[in-house]
Specification:
Number of helices: 15
CATH architecture: Up-down Bundle
Number of domains: 1
Helix content: over 70%
Strand content: under 5%
Number of strands: 0
Shape: globular
Largest sheet: none
Distance between the termini: 50 Å
CATH superfamily: Amino acid/polyamine transporter I
Order of helices and strands: HHHHHHHHHHHHHHH
CATH class: Mainly Alpha
Structural class: mainly alpha
Amino acid sequence: MHKKLPLLEAISILVGTIIGAGILGIPYVVAQAGFITGLVILAVISFTVIMINLYLGEIVLSTKARHQLTGYAEKYLGKFGKYLMFGSVVFGFYGALLAYIIGEGQVLAALTGGNEMVYSLLFFMGASALVYIGLTIVQKFEFFMTLIILVIVLIIILLSVNSIDLSNLNEFSLAKVFIPYGVIFFAIGGTSAVPQLRLVLKGREKDIKKAILIGVSIPFIVYFFFTLIVVGVTGLGTTEIATIGLGQVVSKSMIIFGNLFAFFTMGTSFLTLGLAIKNTYLYDLKLKHGLAWSLSMLIPFVVFLFGLNSFVKIIGTVGAIGGGIEGLLILAIYWKIKKLKKTERNPEYSLRFNPLLITFLGIIFIGGIVYTLVNL
């Protein structure tokens, strides 16, 4: 059993990175597209993410030194690749922080009947103060928080299953396939955790492949059942933050229970991302603490003050554009490693080079980016 613990830790890191506030937006976009449409896109994007993470895992294992995504982009694609990757990562962080500021206001207002704007401001003040202090308890207890989230999702499913209307689950529309794309991509990404798996599985690097396969499959299953329940119960009345509408239909206790779940997932995600971007400025760009914190927190806050208020639109834009650029860059690095044989060490696993699959994945990323930009 002891030998399996590093693998379990690696899986929990990936699952914990993936499962977060994005789960709250999936049912809304799936309801808009049609449940069967959304299910197909969830499966396709999950497969895409598995492949991208496996490619990244091979990149990590083919390189002697350890880097984060920006470092690998610089090593294999030069300065342009570095800045493009850095831009996509920061864009994703800022977009997510903005979405959580908005979402927390909506959730707290649903719980108490107060003003969304006021609650968003209060949440931002408290959470940004914790980011300034450098609270790392969220990261230290990631496994337990992930376990709690999974248990809460299971309870929500059990409380709601008897309220499902099967007529909400039979729509498919080819014309709507890109509607859920960005939000689902945002919710099931997790590439930033892959380089960390090498450290956790030191001496057992070949298990990175297994950790990625299991670590993405678990969120896929959780998202499928959560979406099935929410869309089955609320149909086209599904709200942008799924638990708000679910609570209104199922019971008063679900309003409290579901929205506390939403508050918890968005709050922990905000702290994790806020600390990550602050540390990026601190350690990668060598900025002073106060400036690093200011750049991390004030940019999404200022954008929020300009009146953006769509949780789903923001995370969808972040997922499609930020995640799409990130995915294209990983494909470019992988292509270069395989075609030019730029490896510094023999990786513990090596996938068969498939140009057609890489091209297919690239088309998915480009299609999502173009669709999102056209519909902004």
